[in-house]
Amino acid sequence: MNSRPPVALLVLRLLPLRLVSRLAGWLADRRLPPSILKPLINWYANHYDVDMDEAVEPPGGFGTFNEFFVRPLKEGARPVDPSPDAVVSPVDGRLVMTGTIEDGRLIQAKGLDYSTVDLLGSREAAALFAGGGYATLYLSPRDYHRIHAPVAGRVASVRRRRGRLLPVNDLSVPFVKDLFATNERVIVSMETEAGPVAVVMVGATNVGRISLAFEVAPAQRRTDWDWTPERDIRLAKGEELGRFELGSTVILLFGQERVALDPFAVGASVQMGSRLGQIVP
Questions:
Q1: Do 55 and 149 meet the contact criterion of CB atoms below 8 Å apart?
Q2: Rounded to 5 degrees, what are φ and ψ at 262?
């Protein structure tokens, strides 16, 4: 375990974070008067240096704060690497960690690792990624918060695991053991030309919802569930997969020797559609 956690994190652990996050989500969905909402959005955009020139704003402006937060981008704002063998970033964000899954474990931060089985919530799913690679991407408050497919493929399954809602920024990641594997998360498993791929969307404080770009069985939305699509759901590389309604982290998993990740420096900024690596022939 790393050094002593900051006081702010200790205080957060005492708060009812699920209730706080639900309240934040409820407020973000309220249709506030423009005289309140527009200054709030302007303050947020200025404070976090959000590039509004690339955003698509509906006629009359955003109706809720959440509409602003999950804003779409203008056509061409995020070109997707067209190389057939390219694996691309599914999000805008910062590359926190890449590596190889060794003995069924991934590195979260220096001195902290966690189990693939715990992360995916399935021993069978974890077996597909033994000895494979992974990449962890953190989305900051300024980033575009839609998630896209890193490669073309078919959605094989979706799992939701209910968990904690601790923050997943530098306040928590170096100090909380098994953070990514115990926070709330949605796992999309895909069958692709790059072999098995998992896109793990990790929730955090104030992430009221992680939504998908396709429908899942409605009765399965509130608790842990596993879902196998009855219809063929295929996504092109760069096609929208889901979105965070107040930001978080995405973890990508790849099968053994199926994807060679490029040698990025830890902390490097990436954009959705930019190349992360290539499919191994």
A1: no
A2: -70, 155
Catalytic residue chosen out of the listed positions 21, 89, 172, 248: 248
Q: Please tell me the pTM assigned to this model.
A: 0.89
Tokens encoding 220: 């399965």
Residues in the chain: 281
Is 248 tagged catalytic?
yes
Instruction: State how far the Cα of 129 lies from the Cα of 138, in Å rounded to an integer.
Output: 21
pLDDT tens digits for range 183-193: 889 999 999 99
Question: Has 157 been annotated as catalytic?
Answer: no
Closest CA to 157 of 212, 208, 118: 212
Is 103 a catalytic site residue?
no
Which residue type occupies 50?
Answer: V
**Non-local CB neighbours of 27 within 8 Å, separated by 6+ positions:** 65
Q: Determine the Cα–Cα distance for residues 87 and 238; give it in Å rounded to an integer.
A: 10
Query: Nearest Cα to 266, choosing from 143, 127, 177, 136?
Result: 136
